[in-house]
Amino acid sequence: MNAARPGSVHNYDELRRLAKRRLPKIAYDFIEGGADDEEGLDRNFQGFSRYSLVPRYLVDVSKRDLSTELFGRRYSSPVGIAPTGLAALFRPGADLMLARAARDANVPFIMSGTGTASIEDLGREAPDHGWYQLYAAKDKTISDDMIRRSKDAGLKTLVFTVDVPVHSNRLRNKRNGMSRPLKMPLKTKIEALMHPGWMLDYYRSGGPPMFPNWAPYAGPGAQNDADKVAAFVASQTTPPMTWDDVKRFRDLWPHNFVLKGIMHPRDAERAKEAGVDGIMVSNHGARQLNTAPSPVEVFPAIRDAVGDKMTLMLDSGVRGGSDVATALCLGAKFVFVGRMTLYAVAAGGERLASRALEIVRNELDLTMGQMGAPDIASLGPDFLMWDDPEDLKRNRRP
Ligand SMILES: Cc1cc2nc3c(=O)[nH]c(=O)nc-3n(C[C@H](O)[C@H](O)[C@H](O)COP(=O)(O)O)c2cc1C
C-alpha cells in the first residue's frame, strides 16, 4: 500500500490507515473521532450491517448504469462528498482538491461552512458540482451575505446544517489540546514530530489554516490572522436557530435548498412545509448527539413521511458501495461520504481523493451487478432483508 500510487489502494480501511500514518494524532483524531464515548460511530456502521442485500439472478447485468439525476442534473454516480471543515489542516489546499476530484468524477462536492477555501474559489473551480454548506451566524447579516456570495459565485445548491445547536463533547480533541489556538500537551507535540511530511506542509503553508469565508466579517487585520478569524467563528456559530431561519434562508436562496442533519420524521414534514427541496438524513458522522440513531435506522420512517414529496439523501457511516446500495434500496436518492474522501485527500491529495470516489463507485457497480440491478432505478426495498428473515416474504416484485 503506497500513498504515491492510488491504484494500490483498494478500500475505505486502507485509506483510513494511510491517513493515520501521515497525520499526527491530533489531526487524525479530529477526523475519526465522534462525541462522548463514541458509541455512535459503531452504531452508524452497524446500521448498515443490519441489512442484507438479497440477490436476484438471471437478470442481464452485463451493462450497468450508475448515473443518477439529482435536482435536474445528471451525475455519474449517486455518491458525493459531504462537507468537512478544517480540511486544510490535513493537507494545504484540500478543499479545492476535493472539489476538483468531485468535478472530474462528475459528482457533487459540498464545501463546509468552516471550509478552508473560499466560496468564490469553489465557484471558479467547480461551478456545476460545488454546493455550499451554511452554518448560521449570530449576526444574521453574515449568513445573508454568504448566501448572496454563493449565488454570485454561480452555485446552485445551498445546504443548511441544522444539527449543531450547541457544540458537542469531543473528548479526543480535548485530550489532544485540539483548540484554537492549539494547546498541545508535550506528548502530543512529540508525537507530531513523528509525521515530518505533515509538519513540513503545515509550517510551509503558514501554520493554522484560515477560514476565508468568515475573514471579511472578523474585523481589521483578520485576513492575516487565522486564530483571530477562528475565534470570531467560534463566537458566531451555534446561534439560536429555529424554523424561522429556515424560512428566511429559503426566501433568500433562489435555487435548490437542502437541510442537513434532519433525523426525525416530523422535522422532515416541517422541512417540506418550509419549502425545502431536499433533506440529508445525517447524524453528522456521530459527531454531535452520540446517542442518536444511525440515519439508516430512521430512514424508513422519514421516507414514509415525506419520501414522495422531497429529495431524500443520506450520510454517516458509509464505508463502501454496498452501504450505498443499501441506502438507495431504502429510498435515498443520493449518498454522501465524509471521512472516506477526507482520509484520502489527507493521505494522498487530489489523486487519492479521485481514487476514493472511484473505489466507492466501482464497489457500487459490482454490488449492483451481483444483486441483479442494472441501473439505479432498479434498486428498491425488495432487495433488502434485515433482522427478520420474514421480510423476504413481504417482497412484492415478481
Ligand atoms: C472532520 C470532519 C469535519 C466535518 N465538518 C462538517 C462541517 O463543517 N459541516 C457539516 O455539515 N458537517 C461536517 N461534518 C460531517 C460530514 O458532513 C458528514 O455528515 C459525516 O462525515 C458523514 O459521516 P462519515 O464520515 O461516516 O461519512 C464533518 C465530518 C468530519 C469527519
Describe the structure.
The protein has one domain: Aldolase class I (TIM Barrel, Alpha-Beta Barrel), CATH 3.20.20. The N and C termini lie far apart (45 Å). It has helices at residues 12-22, 25-32, 39-49, 87-90, 94-105, 119-125, 140-152, 171-176, 186-192, 196-204, 226-236, 243-252, 265-273, 295-306, 321-330, 339-371; strands at residues 52-53, 68-70, 73-75, 79-81, 109-111, 130-134, 157-161, 256-262, 278-281, 311-315, 334-337, 384-385. It has 398 residues and is an alpha/beta fold. The model has no long low-confidence stretch (mean pLDDT 95). β2 (68-70) and β3 form a beta hairpin. It binds flavin mononucleotide. Residues 30-31, 44, 82-85, 112-114, 133, 161, 260, 282, 284-285, 287, 315-318, 337-339, 342 line the site of flavin mononucleotide (FMN).
Strand coverage percent: 5-15%
Q: Which ligands appear in the coordinates?
A: flavin mononucleotide
The CATH homologous superfamily name equals Aldolase class I
Task: State the separation between the terminal residues, measured CA to CA.
Answer: 45 Å
Numbering strands along the chain, what is their spatial order in the largest sheet?
4-11-10-9-8-7-6-5
Count of spatially separate domains = 1
Briefly note the structural class of the backbone. Answer: alpha/beta
How large is the radius of gyration?
21 Å
